[in-house]
Design a protein that fits this description.
single chain, 1 helix, ten-stranded mixed sheet, mainly beta
Length: 311
């Protein structure tokens, strides 16, 4: 993955009142750190990172911090060095009938960040907008790598209330060439899409609208959301992360690949069979994370799902 910092532009748009100055941004060598007062919230990676010269990557979030400051995510763990905090990726990336990259495993794949924009809102929320190009050394015209997907991201972070924080993700993907397709792993698991590499406690538990959910080797059904809970805090206190699948998403409700150790949690889309990415209308994917301490029940989660700001 090429490091093209010369194309990285930073804009500040301040549209907030002084009463809501809690969430802020700090630029670091790695990227954009979102803070709330003197606490870190999460880091967006703009700089290219790698693991021992391999799995070069950017455009992901790590660390994600819990309500008490605990680090909840993992980046480049030894079991899967291409896993990276909060990310979205696909194994099968095709252009004109030819597989040009494995974005999930970071093989023959590059992302070039064109620009990003940080905004503070009057309600105290902050918004991070991104623009990226997807490239591959297996897709060239006249010997030059040419972008084949344009990605726009919009991430909205809400102030915490001492027990809960909400983070919204909206991802737009538009093909720049004809014949672009994306697909999950080419097996019965079909994993690919929005993913979370989370530090998993020994007592990790999964639940959904119908109660407990048992991870399986293949995808499982939990309509609308999955709640991952356990002793996630530094002191072993309970908490967790809820991943909400937006009702407008293609294939809603999406299925889930769930793992209770050494792996990712994935909202599976589109699965094993690749789908077309249009040059005219972007594919839009939306997800919400609820980071919480203590307990989180279905009634509380359903309030977020029915919230007008999610529709």
């Amino acid at each position: 993955m090429k490091n093209k910092k010369s194309l990285l532009l930073l804009f500040f748009v301040v549209v907030w009142g002084g009463a809501f100055a809690q969430l802020s941004m700090k630029k670091t060598n790695e990227g954009i750190l979102i803070t709330e007062g003197d606490k870190d919230v999460l880091l967006y990676h703009t700089a290219n990172n790698n693991s021992g010269g391999k799995c070069e990557r950017c455009n992901y979030f790590h660390p994600l911090y819990g309500i008490d400051g605990s680090v909840l995510t993992e980046d480049a763990p030894s079991d899967h060095p291409y896993h990276r905090g909060i990310f979205w990726a696909w194994h099968q990336v095709f252009v004109n009938g030819r597989q040009v990259a494995d974005q999930w495993a970071l093989q023959h794949f590059e992302q070039e960040i064109i620009e990003f924009e940080f905004m503070k809102q009057r309600n105290g929320n902050v918004i991070l907008k991104t623009e990226l190009d997807w490239l591959s050394d297996h897709w060239k015209i006249d010997g030059e790598e040419i972008p084949f997907i344009k990605e726009y991201g919009r991430m909205e972070i809400w102030p915490g209330n001492g027990k809960l924080r909400r983070i919204d993700f909206e991802i737009h993907l538009r093909a720049l060439e004809d014949g672009v397709k994306l697909g999950g792993s080419d097996d019965e698991k079909g994993y690919g899409g929005f993913s979370l590499r989370m530090k998993l406690p020994d007592d990790v538990s999964f639940s959904g609208p119908t109660g407990k959910v048992r991870p399986m080797d293949t995808a499982v059904v939990s309509p609308g959301y999955i709640n991952i809970s356990g002793s996630v805090s530094q002191r072993g206190k309970s908490g967790g992360i809820v991943i909400i699948d937006h009702p407008d998403n293609p294939g809603y409700p999406q299925s889930w690949i769930l793992r209770d150790k050494n792996s990712i949690q994935n909202a599976v889309w589109p699965g094993r069979e690749p789908v077309d990415i249009s040059v005219a209308e972007p594919l839009v994917l939306k997800y919400t994370l609820l980071v919480y301490s203590g307990k989180m029940n279905d009634k509380k989660i359903q309030r977020f799902i029915s919230d007008k700001s999610m529709n």
